[in-house]
Amino acid sequence: MKKLYLLICLLLPVLTHAQTTDVYIGLTSKNSAAALQTLGIAKFNHEDRLKKQAEEVRSVIRYDLRFSRHFDIKEKGPEMNLGNLKDSLEKWNKEGNEYVLFADMHEEGDKLVFNLYVYHTPSGKNILARSYKGTEDALRRLAHIAADQVVLTLTGKKGIGDTRIAYSAEVKEGARTFKEIFIVDYDGANPRKITTDRSMGLLPRWSKDGNIYYTSYRYGTPDVFRINLTAGRVEPVSTSKGLDLIGGVSPDGRSIVLTRSGSSNTVISELNLDTGNMRTLTNQEGVDGSPSYSPDGKFVTFVSNRSGNPQIYRLEIATGETKRLTNAFNWADTPQWSPTGEWIVFAGRLASSHPIDIFLVDITGTRIVQLTSDAGRNEDPTWSPDGRFIAFTTTRNGAKRQLYVMDSDGSSPHLIANIAAGNLFTPHWSL
């Protein structure tokens, strides 16, 4: 029980309010770039009875494109006249728009259809033309998909509009409080509870196939389970009489890393999901925990107190070579490798009198950047799949932990999800 207590403390520290810490090394914006592409968004054409639906689709697309930080969005311009498209494009071009986006919406039986177009205004060339069809309930997701297609077409990069964030949240039933797993759209819409364990569910981790792995006490001890969202089924993956805490899923989706009870300590292990074979990756004196894979699947980052206070380490799976990446922290926890492979984000504090904040360390361990300060306790960081944003939990609005998202340089933090019943924990952004 002592080892279990230590490991849970590593993962879910309970801290008191204290003075904030200064910036350790100055922030460097990773999103600063050349002038953004100017993109006009015209009003959508629609049948009279579809005004509300057309406005919702346009609003979602506009939000996604603004949030992407790829475009300078403008909305000043004429209505698109398909009968005289050349004249409309020239007017949008005169307003300084390199591209213009518009759509028309109509009904087909019990389905709604919107046709989306993007034109290059100087040349009049059609850049994108796609049709999206679904029920009214599906419109919001179709709009996210459409926005991601615009991002891909104009930048060559994947958008994040159709991504979701999984997290653990407190749910009260009478006098009892449980932790269940939820998912929410990246913009905070459509929160949905996806487990009914009536126990403690933590550490949801997405895999490339859209399944979610997590740790639950539904059998009385911490075991690893898989949620098949398509089938609506939960199944055990790794169960034992000891500790099984999910850390991360490999990029190819064929293995997971987890924290397990060793013979005399807690270790990092890797489970092959195809064969069921388990192998131990670390076996040092002390507590090792919170593992996650590098984007190429060749390395694992984890936390260990083998040298004293919990610090961040990097392990090469093939050779077992381990490198310590942080030294000065009083506490460090929950490291997550960036999708670009350059940085590891983690929660930590430099002194016991400081609150927990979010930091970056480069993969050589030579550079530390502090992303949050002067704003409550900030924990559980997770990257967006494009590496440009970080979701995390924070108490900046009071004692309750809420879900926030910020740019990867620490700027523009904003609330995403708030559960009325209780706190949020351990978010993870879909791939």
In short:
With 431 residues, this protein is mostly beta strands. It is built from four helices and 30 strands. Strand 23 and strand 24 form a beta hairpin.
Describe the 3D structure:
The structure is a single chain. Mean pLDDT is 91; it is low at 1-33. Helix 2 (51-67) crosses helix 4. This protein has 431 residues and is mainly β. It has 4 helices and 30 strands. The chain starts with a helix and ends with a strand. The protein has helices at 2-11, 51-67, 85-94, 139-155, and strands at 37-41, 45-46, 71-74, 99-108, 111-120, 125-134, 164-173, 176-185, 192-193, 201-206, 212-216, 223-228, 233-238, 244-249, 255-261, 266-272, 278-280, 288-293, 299-304, 311-316, 322-324, 331-337, 343-349, 357-362, 368-370, 378-383, 389-394, 402-407, 414-417, 424-429. It is elongated, with a radius of gyration of 23 Å. Strand 4 (99-108) and strand 5 (111-120) form a beta hairpin.
Mean pLDDT: 91
Count of helix runs: 4
Helix content: 10-25%
> Low-confidence parts lasting 5 or more residues at pLDDT below 50?
1-33
Query: Tell me, what's the shape?
Result: elongated
Task: Determine the structural class based on helices, strands and strand pairing.
Answer: mainly beta
Characterize the largest beta sheet: strand count, sense, and whether it forms a barrel: 6 strands, mixed
Q: Which percent band covers the strand fraction?
A: 35-45%
CA-based gyration radius = 23 Å
